[in-house]
Specification:
single chain; 153 residues; Diaminopimelate Epimerase, Chain A, domain 1; four-stranded mixed β-sheet; globular
Length: 153
């Protein structure tokens, strides 16, 4: 099964304005840190555990190739109502599993209230804050990964 699909299918999840708001939140978060944040959205999670799917996507997007190993992926399967946050070893070693669980609990509150876009934006901002604290922006930092939302099948 392919990892990605044609962007035009994504319109069923978000409007163009919604996508822009999410991408802007990613850019704002990343302008203060050397960390990288990606958002991956698909319809269905083909794994029992969404963390396993998030890991597959994370490595499929080659997010482990950041210099400080501080990439974070927010994975959402919209129709299956599953999500996971997968942080690379640099950030995970610092914030730990409990941090990711707390963030997932927060976004679930927004999702349960049908505020998907706001929930994603809030989590991107929270992750950005954690990255800033532990991986602040340095003059020589560069954007190592694209900021766009990636849509799966």
């Amino acid at each position: 099964m392919p990892l990605f699909f044609n962007r035009r299918n994504a319109k069923s999840f978000f409007t163009a304005a919604d996508e822009l708001r999410i991408v802007e939140a990613i850019r704002e978060a990343e302008c203060r840190t050397s960390g990288e944040i990606r958002v991956f959205i698909e319809s269905r999670c083909r794994f029992v555990d969404p963390v396993d799917r998030a890991a597959e996507v994370f490595f499929g997007l080659q997010m482990e190739r950041t210099e400080d190993r501080n990439g974070v992926l927010l994975y959402v399967a919209m129709k299956d109502h599953q999500l996971a946050i997968f942080g690379d070893e640099g950030i995970h070693r610092i914030v730990g599993t409990d941090y990711w669980k707390q963030e997932v609990a927060k976004i679930l509150q927004s999702f349960n209230a049908a505020h998907h876009v706001d929930g994603i934006i809030d989590i991107v901002r929270d992750i950005g804050t954690a990255l800033v604290e532990h991986f602040p922006y340095q003059q020589e930092d560069k954007n190592e990964l694209p900021d766009n939302i990636v849509f799966g099948n």
